[in-house]
Amino acid sequence: MEPTDSDNTDRLQLPDAAGRCAERRNWAGFWLLGLCNNFAYVVMLSAAHDILKKQESENATASSSVTLTVDFQAGNSSNSSRYDCNPVSTAAVLLADILPTLVIKLFAPFVIHKLPYGFRVLFCVIMAATSFLLVSFSSAVWMSILGVIFASVSAGLGELSFLSLTVYFNRDVLEGWGSGTGGAGVAGALLYSGLIQAGLSPQITLLIMLVVPVAMVVSYFFLLVPPPSFPQWRSSDAEYTPVTSEDRRQLLDDSEEGEQVKSTTENRTAGSLTFPEKLLVIKGLLKFVFPLGLVYFAEYFINQGLMELLFFHNSVLSHAAQYRWYQTLYQVGVFLSRSSLRCVKIRKLWALSLLQVVNAVFLLFAVRYQFLPNAWLVFAIILYEGLLGGAAYVNTFFFISKETEDRYREFAMAAASVGDSLGIALAGLAAFPVHTYFCSL
């Protein structure tokens, strides 16, 4: 019976034992790469506020621009708003964090193929380690902000590079990557908070976290099992092009016909894509990028524009505690859904976008008219929000990988990564006037 072109036939047909071992190593490798790529960013942002609190800087309010942690002062006599507003919207934090990543994702896909993957990974590792060191030893606000920028550059370049890298492996590694990135938010915040709670200073905790860039090096160079012709230290322009599942089956055939297919496959797509071809690929990606961007726009409009305003005075939890639980449950939802690709695949991405927009509109009215009875209902909605966002992310890139022509797949995976960042940046801009309006009531 002739094999069908399904997900299972996309596996590299190695001998059973060696094949299973390689698949497990690659899945674990991409899981760790996803974790490390976002972990450093999460931990560094959480730590920046603690470091800045110890700095005797005249500009005390500047510390709020380099941390995702919002300090709410319940009962602030100077705050006449019924929403117990923070003076500066957390949207300011969001824009400071996302803009470097957005710039990289907009322009890097057109030129990044000239830089071999090995050098890209080393650059990301150096940037992540530098961000830890800058924030740890910062003596001024600008140093901590520079640390945020370095972490953002590392995360942005790492994401588009590792998504492109998946085309050289079994498509199942996308599940590992997605799960790892989802786990970074939960693990990063918990580990940092745990070490601080154990009595370590933020500076010592950050220096301990330097193990994360080291783990990225180990994961990439020692855990992954790439194809023999993978362009590790050379440009992929004309050296190697990902092949189809049918090609893989035939390349492993020792017959004369198999050798002929190998020769044909290696030469049929040699050379980099032309600029018009890249524009054509981007046009075809819009059906994926638009729903992804819309999901993230609604998602981060909630997180940065509405979440801090969803405060319940009659709760046993303080405003700060409510906000922390919102963020934690959101990260849990993201982790669960980004780990779900093996169980369920959702092709109708527009449905996820619509459901997330409904979430945002519902919570917008909830903030304005305050009809929700307690924080527990919001907890459930925020968890659901995270589930939608994580599902949109992993399914978008899975179906891009599956439906894009082989010659264009590597560029497509990198180019499509701009969707979430663009949605996040627009959400930050939209959240400013919303925050100002509600806090003026």
TrEMBL record:
GO CC terms of this entry: early endosome; late endosome; lysosomal membrane; membrane raft; neuron projection; trans-Golgi network
Keywords: Endosome, Glycoprotein, Lipoprotein, Lysosome, Membrane, Methylation, Phosphoprotein, Prenylation, Transmembrane, Transmembrane helix, Transport
Family statement: Belongs to the battenin family.
Record's subcellular location: Late endosome; Lysosome membrane
Official protein name in the record: Battenin
Pfam families reported for this sequence: CLN3
SUPFAM superfamilies: MFS general substrate transporter
Region of interest called Disordered, as start-end residue ranges on this chain: 242-268
Record membrane topology: Multi-pass membrane protein
Record keyword Nucleus present: no
Species of origin: Stegastes partitus
Transmembrane segments: 30-48, 88-107, 119-142, 148-169, 181-200, 206-225, 349-369, 375-399, 411-432
